[in-house]
């Protein structure tokens, strides 16, 4: 594939020259002009209360004057990948330009030819372990699985995964997605399994399925997608979800007393990744979006939404993280036991959980 095709830019010598300079193309006027000519960006699965995406999208629109077409905010990672597949020949509004998916979905999307490479100008400050060497996908932010608890309903918050099996939590516990397709839910099952298996990653998938099977048989599992509305209404007073989502709900709970608990064991850190569709109808807008997300400005907007941006260490080293943002995060010791599963471990866990959920747990999450 030629570099010109790789960049998805028309045969304009000035743009080709800039592209050959790599990072010099970042947010250049050439890229901005090319993106504005396309007119819009199509994103998918970006709820405004997830990781501060409301402010991120608003900031991008204000900075560059592009429209942002937002598809299916509640979609899971699997749905995002399927949306690319389903719209390969479609340049209309249902074709996503970019995706934000769980780490394990990046390599598979690359293998299936669904995403295209692009290295942002801040590429060097993204840890090597959190990016594809060829630029097909790269980590954007991370968090840990936590318990979000409605304290107006649940008087004593669970401290660890095993606590969820107690009689006190009858008809109370939900996942924040369908564990057959949504990365957040898959990782929730994996984290429970890692705790039950004593930290043995090889057994985490199967152990997680058994844990949720027991939870379901006990009558503690609620087979609906847990959201802030169901939490505040008391329908799902305990939700297993990423800490950044739970912390955002804590601030915006509209009077509900919300507790956020990082479990004592099975503390699984999840890295999400960005990628550009190989069939993006607006490839230059997609590249400009990536440049914005990985700029200091974009990274700090994610941190404002309680996500640890992938360039956090670089920002902290250069004293670019405002003290007021750091003060709102949980204490560092809450994350001391955090485990970052390898790609192979995630892939094995994902395969076991998605394939075995119906047979082992038998609860259709809707």
Automatic annotation (TrEMBL):
Gene3D superfamilies, per database record: Periplasmic binding protein-like II
Signal sequence bounds: 1-26
Keywords associated with the record: Signal
Domain of life where this protein originates: Bacteria
Protein name: Iron ABC transporter substrate-binding protein
Phylogenetic classification of the source organism: Bacteria, Pseudomonadati, Pseudomonadota, Alphaproteobacteria, Hyphomicrobiales
